[in-house]
Amino acid sequence: MKKKIFTLIIAAALTVSSTTAFAAEIPRETTPQGATEEQVCIVENIIGDILDEVQCGNLGYTLAEGYANTRIRKAVIAGETNGHGYGILSPIAQNAIRDMRDKMLRPDVYAQAEKQLKILLADIIIEVENGMDMNTAIKAAYEKIYQSVNPSFDYNEQFSLDTCYRDIPAVDMAMFIVARKLLNDAQSVYIQKQ
């Protein structure tokens, strides 16, 4: 009897320690442009355990998104989001869940994208490490990515058109996520230099 109780206590302690030791963070490269760090932290606090389940492969995108949106909606209604609304908090969660799920299912695609983009965006990465504005860098990186598929692609021209007239090359979303990650890392290098 004592052995069963001791085993039960040990199992419970291991369960508690394992769930608190691993907490998935929202990848900053997935956050919508304009989202603040405060908003990202609010979403992390609301859906951290859902992100853990997605990262471990226990939840798919649709179910995780549904749980996350329900929690965020309840938190907004209860006034627990420091005045931030569902319209910005939900996309932060959706992007993070989509990215985590995609990275888990296609790790080789992300590894290949990183290899390609380190070469393709080398000059922009260096400029960000030296203080280039992030919005300018992201736009330049996206244009280079599109031009790697269609060399005649003109970012300003295409994005000035009505959406139904744009001719934008098809590019895997992994390329844009990895590009933002590399640029975020470069910005961290710049900040450390200061």
Detail the topology: elements first, then pairings.
Layout: H1 2-21, H2 37-55, H3 61-77, H4 86-105, H5 107-120, H6 122-129, H7 134-149, H8 155-160, H9 173-193
Overall description:
The structure is a single chain. The protein contains 9 helices and no strands. It is mainly alpha-helical and 194 residues long. Helix 4 packs across helix 5, helix 6 packs parallel to helix 9 and helix 7 (134-149) packs antiparallel against helix 9. The radius of gyration is 20 Å and the shape is globular. The termini are far apart.
Count of helix runs: 9
Distance between the termini: 62 Å
Overall morphology: globular
Find the structural class using helix and strand composition: mainly alpha
The helix/strand order is HHHHHHHHH
Low-confidence parts lasting 5 or more residues at pLDDT below 50? 2-21
Work out the helicity level.
over 70%
Which keywords apply here?
single chain, 9 helices, about 190 residues
Summarize the structure.
With about 190 residues, the chain is an all-alpha fold. About 75% of the residues lie in helices and about 0% in strands.
